[in-house]
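User: Show me sequence and structure for the first protein, then do the same for the second.

Assistant: Starting with the first protein.
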Amino acid sequence: MRKELPEIVRADEWVPLVIRTDYTDDAAWREVVAALERAVEGEREWLSVAHLVEDRRWDGVTGDEAVAAAVRDEKLSVVFLADGVTLRSPLRPLLALDLGADDDEDLDPMYYQELIDSPQPREVRVAPDAVHMVHGNLQLANVDFPEFVEDAAAHPDGVVRDVTAASASPGSLPHSGP
């Protein structure tokens, strides 16, 4: 790791962790936060729509560095990064990183060589309106991370969307979600 990153202390394991790693466009960041807020409007009284980490010590952090820092939280299954792609794209897709992707490190090669040779995908882009759906399903183990990657691959832009939000927004193409 190139630098020591601050520890992340979340108050609620059911709130997605979103780390800002790009500080080039404050207006775009505010759009990401607003989109996260819109995604949960009327759902329940949220203390926070997400655990937002906005600390310049995270500026320029890579996915691998973020994963190494986030795995300290044993109850966390996925972390979302607001990186340069997020801030430059009109869709504002966050980079979702699977924290359980290294679970095959201790597998016995005699029995699990196929899994070892073909590692599962570790990342996928997620629209802000789908962050809570992805996080919640991974926390509950309802859906595996590769299923979200497969869902994203079915779309030309490779981004996971919330099926209910996609059907409600004008111009969105409906799709079969996880």
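Switching to the second protein now.
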Amino acid sequence: MPAARESLLDAAFAALEGRPWPRVKMAEVAAAAGVSRQTLYNQFGSKEGLARALVRREADAYLSGVERALSGASGAAGPRERLAAAAVWTVRSATENPLVRAVLTGCWNERLPTSVTSVTSVTSVRTASPGPLPAPGELLGQARDRAVRLLAGDWPPGAVELPLACEAVARLALSYVVAPAPAADVARMVRTVLA
């Protein structure tokens, strides 16, 4: 039931936009997704399982966006421009999505499903575990590692070491998430630092 699972996650995300997670009701999520409450419980096991899967999906979507930016899908040509595009994606994604911001920074507020950080494995027997949620440093490390892998063949000889450049850009983008500024500013900053 992949379609039901995605519909339920979409409904949970929409519900979270309207009210704090503790006030989100499983019956409302199921109804919004057009499935029974039993289907929701079969898919996720509990409200905590739903929250965990939702946060995992948003973290994975963030990493997919990083890969798109680094692959040049945004129209950025050179490796520095692609790193700048990944930094901009990071800032925009964290600005627009409170779950991405929370996973990147480790700062969870009362509106978000805070129990997901302590749940070890709450899933239905029928559903594969969404995997552990990354800590902020781990998610940033995953973004950095993807940058190193995707830019390795294009990195100019004689430039700063690629892993160091990717780490610096990831941390620079995170600083823009923690101390907000326009996303376009981070691209200019990345280009300046890597020049």
